Amino acid sequence: TLDLPPEVVAAIRGARRVMVLTGAGMSAESGVPTFRDAQTGLWEEFDPSQLATAEAWQEDPRFVWGWYAWRMHLVRGVEPNAGHRALAELARLREVMISTQNVDDLHERAGSSVAAHVHGSLFALRCTDCDSPYEGEVDLPAEPEERLVPPQCPECGAHVRPGVVWFGEMLPEADVEATEAAIDTLQPGDVTLVIGTSGLVFPAAGYPAMARAEGATVIEINPTETEVSDMCHHVVRGTAAEVLPALVAAVGE
Ligand code: APR
Ligand code: ZN
């Protein structure tokens, strides 16, 4: 297996609690494109201001809905990767709290419980106007479709929207509070894993520094340097599906 820096193994082995902060890189090896990676990044191919803002939704709900419905189709068609499964295993060895920026359900499908989805959840559809959750059927296209009409709210007839947080929108309070409360309770000896995030989007990008301020040992798992690398005590330059199984195996020994 991958040779991990001994101080990283020691930190995890000695940890009472492990707080896990994940971003799109966590799901990359499942086949879900990240946002800002060179060549595969979603924001290379699609314009976020046309897709991930409330204005874009007001402007053209069919295009925005068609894109998110395609992403739901994509996530439905992939599996959690060895990294997701390793984190589910870790929760059997240590107290684990996961706060993710990801809107997919791959952590849950790998068996993890996720304390916070700070950018919402793809599958948590709700009414644009009356906020009622939408549990009805949706037809999911294999490609982004510009003309896809969003489902209609059975309560008030308005458009149903994706349950994700768009740029400029408020984050779900309960998820932010759960994350910040968990960070507040971190103590020296605890570990925070920062996995697969570029550290560009706030407030999530501020969480590693907050964890460090509480005395936790912060470890980044990411093949490349990020905006939060210098907040971390240790960095493991590898991928989630390679590093996490090796880390969890080392803890279990
Ligand atoms: N394993 C671990 N990390 C990886 C892998 C992998 N297999 N592949 C890529 N990465 C890393 C990249 O190096 C990059 O640092 O994952 C990170 C992905 O960065 P982004 O695409 O910016 O994703 P993220 O940080 O989650 O974006 C934050 O931006 O568009 C919004 O709401 C969206 O939640 C998202 C937010
Ligand atoms: Zn409604």
UniProtKB/TrEMBL annotation:
GO cellular component, one term: cytoplasm
EC number: 2.3.1.286
Broad class of enzyme this protein falls into: transferase
The protein's required cofactors: Zn(2+)
Binding site for substrate: Y68, R71
PROSITE patterns the record matches: SIRTUIN
Keyword Cytoplasm: yes
GO molecular function: histone deacetylase activity, NAD-dependent; NAD+ binding; protein-malonyllysine demalonylase activity; protein-succinyllysine desuccinylase activity; zinc ion binding
Active site: H119 (proton acceptor)
Gene3D superfamilies: SIR2/SIRT2 'Small Domain, TPP-binding domain
Cofactor stoichiometry and binding remark: Binds 1 zinc ion per subunit.
Residue ranges of domain Deacetylase sirtuin-type in the record: 1-253
Catalysed reactions, semicolon-separated: N(6)-succinyl-L-lysyl-[protein] + NAD(+) + H2O = 2''-O-succinyl-ADP-D-ribose + nicotinamide + L-lysyl-[protein]; N(6)-acetyl-L-lysyl-[protein] + NAD(+) + H2O = 2''-O-acetyl-ADP-D-ribose + nicotinamide + L-lysyl-[protein]
Main location: cytoplasm
Keywords: Cytoplasm, Hydrolase, Metal-binding, NAD, Transferase, Zinc
Subcellular location as annotated: Cytoplasm
Residues binding Zn(2+): C127, C130, C153, C156
Sequence similarity: Belongs to the sirtuin family. Class III subfamily.
UniProt free text on domains: 2 residues (Tyr-68 and Arg-71) present in a large hydrophobic pocket are probably involved in substrate specificity. They are important for desuccinylation activity, but dispensable for deacetylation activity.
Purpose: NAD-dependent lysine deacetylase and desuccinylase that specifically removes acetyl and succinyl groups on target proteins. Modulates the activities of several proteins which are inactive in their acylated form.
Record's protein name: NAD-dependent protein deacylase
Gene it is expressed from: cobB
